Amino acid sequence: MNANNFRLPARRLATVAAATALAAGPASLAHATEDQGRASAVVLRTGLNVSLLNKSVNVPLAVALNEVQAPQSAEQTALTAKLDGVDGGKPFTVLGAEVAEAKATVAEGRAEASTTLAHAKLHVPGLPLLSLIEVEQVTSKATCVAGEKPVASANLLGSVTALGKKVTLTPSGPVVVKVPAVGEVRLALSQTETTTRTAAATALELTVSVNPLDLNVAEVEGTVTLAKATCEAPAVQGAPPASPAPASDVKPQGAPAEAGLAETGGGSMTPYLAGGALALLAAGAGAVALARRGKN
Description:
By secondary structure, this protein is of the alpha+beta class. The protein has two helices and 14 strands. The strands form two sheets. Strands 1, 2, 3, 11, 12, 13 and 14 form a seven-stranded antiparallel beta sheet that branches. Strands 4, 5, 6, 7, 8, 9 and 10 form a seven-stranded antiparallel beta sheet that branches. A hairpin with a 2-residue loop joins strand 6 and strand 7. Helix 1 (2-36) runs antiparallel to helix 2 (270-295). The longest helix is centred in the first third of the chain and has 35 residues, at 2-36.
């Protein structure tokens, strides 16, 4: 009777310990991710919709070039982004550049991201010969150091051409370029934002509405982001963990044709998942030992 009465609490103990370990796992993982900081960078991200044949066919054009994320230090330098299925079945080059770099690092209380894009031409379906935009060089950088104020910067170096027209951009506000029978592009220059622990910088943000020759052969609408960097500072040693940061940008739905264009990162969760498994094993072993004592 005594053995049976003791065995039941032992089993309950094992169940409670396992449940506690499972519940604590995600929380511990979240705190660990926040503590070490985060950084991300992307050279190009498109959120466009291409309408063909008088809007009878809609094709989302979602491409990311050189998108990287840390805690894992990462770097990408692919120079072109291509998309299949929007140009008569042939690969369509969305962006070509001489330099296209994105870096993200998190180490020793510091999270940092940066991008550089130089001598780049961006095209959309329906305008194979006319660039949507051409830039000589744009850069962005975000730096977040534990216990310090984050810093964000974005720079436009050299000229910008939109729909064949040279554009002069100023920090005072966006510029709209309109071309009859082609469409319009709205350009916003050098956007930066900082909080107590985060920073974000975008070199160029474009809002696009293109309908070549008003023939409804290919109508393109949406947004394009060039050279974006973000970071979140690691927690100060000894400070209580901060509440979770707001969700970041939605990831692109489409996938670039080249393997080098895919996003990297995500493996940093593995050690914490392994730690949760060890906690479960330890809890089970303790409960079994306690049950055996009850038998003796």
